[in-house]
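Weekly sync, protein design subgroup
Attendees: M.S., D.O., the rotation student, P.L. (late)

Item 1: inverse folding check
M.S. brought a backbone from last month's batch and wanted to see whether the design step gives back something sensible before we order anything. D.O. pointed out we never logged the input encoding, so this time it goes straight into the notes. Structure tokens as presented (90 positions):
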């Protein structure tokens, strides 16, 4: 085989890693829901959207050949009856 796929799942998310025939890690994709957000992310949301609250979050991370391709948080914020769906931070 030219490559091997390893997948792992937890209650909060999943990880998929691909290795070449020599065992070298070639790519990683991680997706998690309802994670503990970094303080900087929380602070920037509350600063930009005072009075809003974070009601849902997802973290997506992608790497290929050691280079980070994507690292983002998808957030859903709410204030009264208004909701901003899929707010992206990089």
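Designed sequence read out in the meeting:
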């Amino acid at each position: 085989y030219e490559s091997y796929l390893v997948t792992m799942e937890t209650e909060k998310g999943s990880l998929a890693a691909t290795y070449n025939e020599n065992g070298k890690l070639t790519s990683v994709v991680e997706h998690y829901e309802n994670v503990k957000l970094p303080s900087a992310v929380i602070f920037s949301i509350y600063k930009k959207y005072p009075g809003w609250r974070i009601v849902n979050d997802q973290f997506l991370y992608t790497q290929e050949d050691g280079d980070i391709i994507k690292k983002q948080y998808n957030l859903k914020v709410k204030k009264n009856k208004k909701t901003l769906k899929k707010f992206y931070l990089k």
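Discussion: Strands lie at 3-9, 13-20, 25-33, 53-64, 67-79, 82-89. The helical segments are 39-48.
Action: P.L. to compare against the previous round before Friday.
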